[in-house]
Amino acid sequence: MTDLKIPVGISDFAKIRNYQYYYVDKTGLIEDLLEKETAEVTLITRPRRFGKTMGMSMLANFFDIRKDSKAMFAGLQISKNAALCKEWMNQWPVVFLSFKNIDGDKFSLAYQQMVYEIGLLYDSYSELLTSNKLSEDDKALFLQLKRRTANEIDVLRSIQFLLSLLYKHYGKTVILLLDEYDVPLAKSSAHGYYPEMLNVIKSMMTTSLKDNNTLRFAVITGCLRIAKESIFTGTNNFVSDTISSSHLNEYFGFTQADVDQILKDADCMEHADDIKNWYDGYHFGNLDVYCPWDVMNYLRDLQRNPKAKPASYWKNTSDNSIIRSFIDYAGHSISRKLEILLSGGYILQRIEENLTYDYLHSSEENLWSILYLTGYLTQAREEDLPEPLPEGSSALMIPNAEVREIFETTIQKWFDESAQTWNRKALFDAVWSGDTETLTKEMNKLLRKTISYHDYREDFYHAFLAGIFAGAGYEVDSNKEHGEGRSDVVVLDPEGDRVAIFEAKYSRTQDAMPRDCAAALQQIEDRQYAKEFEEDYDSILCYGIAFYKKRCLVQTK
């Protein structure tokens, strides 16, 4: 395997190019923005870890009048367009600001973070303090913002003010790049100060973008298009580029051609199928894309260990609280749709792209939309569907093995926690009394509350059975992984001097359930599962269970 310098966790374009990290050429974005979009404001929304910040850093390095980026872009696609490079490369003042670090469990802390980031931004333009084009009042306010002592009004207008200063100094309109603009809104929604943060973001956006003669153009990135919030209302020539459109999709994520080239350069084509199964499957517009964060992480792991298996890198970048809140919300309709998705199918939904963070959970439609827009679901290709889609509907599916694992893990944790709150007294009493009729009834109740994540295979039922007793004060010995010689689930109650042994079977039909129960009981007897407990426990109860979809039958001898 060829040793490549993989830039995992590095989104600074200059650092990647100057230190010879491996780079997948996405400089075509510059040309498309200038020659095809030609909008005053372009909002680009993509899920996290699809290269938004990298793209913005690339744009900043290309345009910034203070830099000499010719060597940095040498050999890349954009360098072939000599006329464009002459007109645009390092010819314009640029303001590049990221909101990704603005967070806090209360508004005052988040606002302080905002003030801090503004201070860092102004500090990076300290050369303006010596400009003879700026007034003393301009410089005084500049210093206040730089030192983080400015009042609230000045903070809210700080981006607009910086644009005006750069315009005065250079005599040119300014390119504005705002990265992850909606992170503060997402964080504020989670912590309960959404209206306050919305006012801050709205003030900054409207003063910077609306009727601003110092602005050349702006590019803004985020996960969601918050149009209903009127953040971009009144902005002239506004263009929104989302995962449903097909304009700029090849620049955010890896295409199949990108991945083929990466694997060729790394000399590890034998891993192509694993990478495709785990990290491909996103359909942005008419384009199929891989998650670049995952591909690069796995490639780095392969360089360290050629036998490394694919892993869920994407899930480790957040707490996946979106899925958890979604599952907590789940009624029968949502549960059924989740089961369809987890079995490899698709569901039909209307997608609402103009969402507001404070209303994300106000309807089922919004919930499905947020899962789609944040990368947990993707659109199925219409040509792969058995029939045309109803007007206004999208066919949503889980994109790949990695995201499927995220769903499965989250659902399992949800079940384990939920099972502890469900009233299981009747079920436990039935277990220790040998009341199979009640036990069957109570287990069927719990089955109907669950979300199947293994297409009703044996491992789903095994996890379900073990989860019932976990956290209930019993010792649970789950021995599915041990193979023959041990029963599926053993529940031990040392204080009660008793043991319950469960052997589970997956029935192919409902009619086969009694026969499969009998086979399970016979297996317990033939393999003497109870024998190891005879010396230590007075009461040993043996149960055969047959499962079929969301039904079960429990029998004992």
SSE topology sketch:
Layout: H1 13-18, H2 28-37, E1 41-45, H3 52-63, H4 70-73, H5 82-88, E2 94-98, H6 107-123, H7 136-146, H8 152-156, H9 158-170, E3 174-179, H10 183-191, H11 194-209, E4 215-222, E5 238-241, H12 256-266, H13 272-279, E6 282-284, E7 287-289, H14 292-304, H15 321-329, H16 332-342, E8 347-349, H17 364-373, E9 378-379, E10 394-397, H18 401-421, H19 425-433, H20 436-449, H21 458-469, E11 475-478, E12 489-493, E13 498-506, H22 513-526, E14 539-548, E15 551-556
Parallel strand pairs: 1-4, 1-5, 2-3, 3-4, 13-14
Antiparallel strand pairs: 6-7, 8-10, 9-10, 11-12, 12-13, 14-15
Briefly say what this structure is.
Helix content is 43%, strand content 14%. It has 22 helices and 15 strands.
What does this structure look like?
The protein has about 550 residues and is α/β, with parallel strands linked by helices. The protein folds into three domains: about 25-245, 3-Layer(aba) Sandwich (Rossmann fold); about 320-405, no CATH class; about 420-555, Trna Endonuclease, Chain: A, domain 1, CATH 3.40.1350. It contains 22 helices and 15 strands. It has helices spanning about 15-20, 30-35, 50-65, 70-75, 80-90, 105-125, 135-145, 150-155, 160-170, 185-190, 195-210, 255-265, 270-280, 290-305, 320-330, 330-340, 365-375, 400-420, 425-435, 435-450, 460-470, 515-525, and strands spanning about 40-45, 95-100, 175-180, 215-220, 240, 280-285, 285-290, 345-350, 380, 395, 475-480, 490-495, 500-505, 540-550, 550-555. Strands 2-3-4-1-5 form a five-stranded parallel beta sheet, with helices on both faces. Strand 13 (about 500-505), helix 22 and strand 14 (about 540-550) form a beta-alpha-beta unit. Helix 9 runs parallel beside helix 11 (about 195-210) and helix 10 (about 185-190) packs antiparallel against helix 11 (about 195-210). The relative contact order is 0.08. Residues about 480-485 have low confidence and may be disordered.
